[in-house]
Structures are given as C-alpha cells and as structure tokens.
Write a structure and sequence with these properties.
about 375 residues, alpha/beta, Rossmann fold, Glutathione S-transferase Yfyf (Class Pi), Chain A, domain 2, 2 domains, six-stranded antiparallel beta sheet, six-stranded mixed beta sheet, 11 helices, about 45% helix, globular
C-alpha cells in the first residue's frame, strides 16, 4: 500500500466539547461512533478546520472556542508520502493564526492548498435546492484547495467588483463622472473573470469525466452529469460589448449585473434536471457522487489522495450502498466515517477499520 496524505495525530485544546485531546489516527478507514451530542462530529470538524481553517458547520469561529476560554487550538501531524509537517490553527477573539512547523503563515491562500480534504455531511443534501451562491461557495472551496492562484484571482475579482459597483452608483448620482474609468474597471473585471471561468469550466469537465462511473458503481444505474452555467463562456471582446450595452441599466441598479459572481451549476440525471425532477434520495446520491468524483481529480493534479470525511453516512444510506462506496474508494484514501449506531455497521467493514468511541468529549480506541 502506497503512502498517501493522512493525519496521524490530532491535538485539541478548548475546542468545542474537548478541553484537551491527544489522539493517534490510523491510515485507511477510521470509524468514529457515539451518541448525538457526544462530540464525534466535532472531531471530524477539527480535522476539516485544520485543512481549510474554517468549520463546515459554523460561520462564526468564536463559537468553536469553549465557553469561558480565551482561545482554541487545533494541531495535527500531516503526512505526505514519507514526510510529515505539523499544522496548527489557533482561534481567539482576535482572529485566527495558522502555522506550519511552528512558522507563522501570513496568507491563508498559502496554507489552504497544503492539505486536501473532501467532506460529505447531511446538510450537503440541501445543495441542489439552495441558492446559487451556496453552490458557488462549494465550487470555490474545492478549486481553491487544488490551485493557490485561484483564491488570489477570486479575491482580485471581488475587489474590482466592489470598486465597479461603487463607481456605478457614483455615475448614477452625479451623471457626469468619467466613463473611461468604468471601461478600465470593466476590462479588469473581464480579464479576471475569464481566468476564474476557465478554472471552473475545467473543474466541472473533470468532474464529468468521473461522476457517472462513481454514481453507477454505488447506485447501479443512471447517467449523472454536472452542467456549468455561466454568462462568461464568451470571448473577452463579446463580454466587453455586452457590458457596454448594459451600462445605463447597471447605473440604474447601481451594481454589476453580469459576471462570474452569478455563476451556477446544476445536476442532470438521465437527461433531467435533478432540481426539478429528482427525489431527495437522488439529490443526496448526486452530491455524494460529486464529492467522490473529486478524489480522482485531486489525485491526478496533486499526485496524492485527499483525506475523506463522511459524516453520519449510515443515517443517509443503507449498508449495501455504503459497502459500494468503500469499493469505489481506493484503500489508500484515509477515510473518517461518523455514526451513532456501531451495531448496524457490516462486520466486514468493522474488521478492517480503526474504531473510536466518543463519550462526552472523551475518545477511546477499539
């Protein structure tokens, strides 16, 4: 078995319901079980946060710190091949600090491309019915993990967008301000947007090369595709023309009406839009397949498998499908599965897994 990216040790201080924790983790399959509220999802949340500096459940970092405490620490020993580094995220009321091997990293974009992680959790099933901004957020997280420059492009685009919106409002109010400056901002927006569009388009193309195969291996039938929806699938010149035609409309609204900040994607199963025709079950299956298809993409680009988290998987799927999933996964993918019910897990799965029981913020192995 080749050596892949994995976390071998996790240390927590004042994080959620863990006052202190020092836990060794195994390669391959890790099953974490405990009652609801015991802290099993907090454990995988800490691993996710160590990789991406954000929680997958909360927007406000401060809620991750134990009440009455000043700060929370998440530390992990991450292996790539035969070499490891120590990663650390510190969350306090003053903000967030990240370190690799005790060196402070000032740019988050330098940090988040180091550990690739994929997560499937119950709330993901809402993705198909949620807003386009939620789907863009997922797309941005996934691509940012692979390409450092993508985050920088996004941040530039958002800065230019903000400037352009402010200037449109100014033009509307004062009418006589220079259109020339608007042209400059528009050109910059288009240049940046086109690059982001290219990354997104290629990512979705890569997903489409893998997703039907994954879907069929787990659910045994169906052709699944992802369709990327963007008004930036045009040449730079065509886009600039569209913007110019829309100037007066945009001034009236005081904001930029087209751009990659309106992009979206949709799932198509057997030729039908899942959002309109799919059952809850099919939507869940589509999201899961999307996430699992990414594993192969990351392996091809980064040359290592990502770490995989499947939170509360057994409540979402029956045992046969779970076993199908594990057949899709390469054994080299370090996988964390959380569950409330260890008794319902197939014996063949338990024999090849490391098992952790969580009770009130205490973890015991075996």
């Amino acid at each position: 078995m080749g050596l892949n990216m994995r976390i071998s040790n996790l240390k927590l201080t004042n994080f959620r319901n863990y006052e202190t924790l020092n836990l060794d983790l195994q390669n391959g399959l890790n099953i974490i079980y405990g009652e609801n509220g015991s802290g099993k999802s907090n454990l995988v949340e800490a691993i996710y946060l160590l990789a991406l500096t954000k929680s997958f459940r909360l927007n406000n970092d401060k809620n991750l710190i134990q009440k009455t405490k000043e700060s929370a620490n998440i530390e992990g020993k991450i292996w790539k091949g035969n070499d490891y580094s120590l990663y650390k995220v510190n969350i306090s009321n003053d903000g967030k600090k990240v370190e690799i091997d005790n060196n402070k990293i000032n740019k988050i974009s330098e940090y988040v491309t180091k550990i690739q992680i994929i997560i499937f959790y119950p709330r993901d099933t809402e993705l198909i019915n949620s807003s386009p901004s939620e789907r863009r957020r997922v797309l941005n997280i996934e691509i940012s993990q692979i390409f450092k420059e993508y985050m920088l492009l996004l941040s530039n685009y958002n800065k230019i967008l903000k400037q352009r919106n402010a200037y449109l409002k100014q033009l509307y109010l004062y009418g006589n301000a220079s259109r020339e400056y608007l042209d400059i901002l528009t050109k910059k927006l288009v240049e940046n947007g086109k690059k982001i569009n290219k990354y997104r388009q290629e990512f979705i193309n890569n997903i489409n090369e893998n997703i039907t195969e994954v879907y069929q291996k787990i659910f045994e039938k169906g052709t699944l595709k992802v369709r990327y929806l963007s008004n930036y699938n045009k040449t730079e010149k065509e886009l600039l023309d569209i913007y110019r035609k829309n100037y007066s409309k945009e001034m009236a609204f005081g904001k930029t009406l087209i751009g990659i900040h309106h992009d979206d994607f949709e799932f198509i199963l057997d030729g039908n839009k899942l959002k309109e025709w799919g059952s809850q079950g099919q939507m869940k299956n589509a999201i899961l397949s999307f996430k699992l298809a990414e594993i192969k993409i990351i392996k091809e680009i980064i040359k290592e498998y990502p770490i995989l988290i499947l939170d509360d998987l057994f409540s979402e799927l029956d045992n046969k499908k779970v076993l199908n999933i594990l057949q899709v996964l390469n054994e080299e993918v370090q996988t964390f599965i959380t569950t409330t019910d260890i008794d319902s897990i197939p014996a063949e799965l338990l024999t090849k897994s490391a098992i952790y029981q969580v009770q009130n913020g205490q973890v015991t192995e075996g």
